Hints:
Blueprint: H1 2-26, E1 37-40, E2 48-56, E3 64-66, E4 81-83, E5 107-108, E6 113-120, E7 125-131, H2 138-147, E8 156-161, H3 185-204, E9 207-216, E10 226-227, E11 238-245, E12 251-258, E13 271-272, H4 276-286, E14 288-290, E15 293-296, E16 302-307, E17 314-315, E18 322-323, E19 330-331, H5 336-357, E20 359-361, E21 366-376, H6 380-387, E22 400-410, E23 413-417, E24 421-422, H7 424-428, E25 457-461, E26 470-471, H8 502-517
Parallel strand pairs: 5-13, 7-8, 12-16, 23-25, 24-26
Antiparallel strand pairs: 1-21, 2-6, 2-9, 3-4, 6-7, 9-11, 9-20, 10-17, 11-12, 14-15, 18-19, 21-22, 22-23
Amino acid sequence: xxxxxxxxxxxxxxxxxxxxxxxxxxxxxxxxxxxxxxxxxxxxxxxxxxxxxxxxxxxxxxxxxxxxxxxxxxxxxxxxxxxxxxxxxxxxxxxxxxxxxxxxxxxxxxxxxxxxxxxxxxxxxxxxxxxxxxxxxxxxxxxxxxxxxxxxxxxxxxxxxxxxxxxxxxxxxxxxxxxxxxxxxxxxxxxxxxxxxxxxxxxxxxxxxxxxxxxxxxxxxxxxxxxxxxxxxxxxxxxxxxxxxxxxxxxxxxxxxxxxxxxxxxxxxxxxxxxxxxxxxxxxxxxxxxxxxxxxxxxxxxxxxxxxxxxxxxxxxxxxxxxxxxxxxxxxxxxxxxxxxxxxxxxxxxxxxxxxxxxxxxxxxxxxxxxxxxxxxxxxxxxxxxxxxxxxxxxxxxxxxxxxxxxxxxxxxxxxxxxxxxxxxxxxxxxxxxxxxxxxxxxxxxxxxxxxxxxxxxxxxxxxxxxxxxxxxxxxxxxxxxxxxxxxxxxxxxxxxxxxxxxxxxxxxxxxxxxxxx
Length: 518
């Protein structure tokens, strides 16, 4: 009996050591020693050069599947089967990220992209990228930076995710189940290769340019957004930068920055899509159409959509109706018709703002302040997901993850680089300390970030250079009863956040980079 317990104890110890070893390996720092503390400054305004490019990062759907109980989730226990089209004996699935696990794509509705703008003011050169992904982790951003050819002389690269909930998983937690990553390694490699190729092409396309800045601050876009968590603070406003060829006045590209979750198609869609950013970009580039009839001419060039302050949660929720701007038909149920109606409305507002309210800048300069920060990882689910290899987050310090904040000034505009989904009240004001909060404190993230920005035009680039999840005011943090505002239900957000210190740390760090530029 003693021998049995001795063997059992040794076996248990061995299992613990193996599991511990796996966790320690997966928690390792994948970019050891990496940190930036960047300051780029040019006081002399000059003719800026700009280049644009776009490359698809769309997966090729090989195998399809048969949904036995029509629940839009793949589960063999429900009788679901797959069609082994390439005859390799396994299900080659691309798992759609967002909403839930177990959603293999059945096809492609529209391409997903990496879209790039490169700017050069004669002293500094930067690349700004928007990728159609639910998120792209900081370690993968660093990997792309290291792959950029040195001869391109790019001083700073910003990569933001649109946060579409309709494309393949590039983070890891939306696979077949909670124990299997949703990231296809070949697809991840393809996305990185295409992104670098787009950067190279954009740099080759550099042309003397002038910039047109405009905004739509009418708050008409508020009808397209539902704030699903109190306090109700909507991140309204469309922020625009059109880049014209200085010699021909042809549009090289247009940046559109707006705050709403690209999840109009909601949870039942099984087709790869960039959601409403697809329709926004198509309309800006090629014109706004009602069926086959051109209703508003586009600008040409490459349209790049950047997601804004979408925490809170800003969403085109199924409970709100969105009207087709031409037919007057109101759509509430998730559909591509609803998604197009939303995209067309944003495109029409954007085109009108550029036509009537734009400031044209002939000469400009670039200033950049960016720095690495280390944020505490308090989320137990994230720790486990990282430990078993679902999320390749890595921890350079004890239960801290490496991320980054930044600010870019281009002429009269500031572009703020935010590494996750920030709650709008941190940016625009309205942070509260409601009854039922977990911490007996008053608001920390005040005054709002926008009050520190002195530039005329403000761009808030969410999910930039990382996806750390929700950035929540600490005085609104709540994980247990009593619930906020004494509501009967718990709040959504904390489960997808690094932890309660994230809000104060990101707020403080953003203020620091803004003030360094000022």
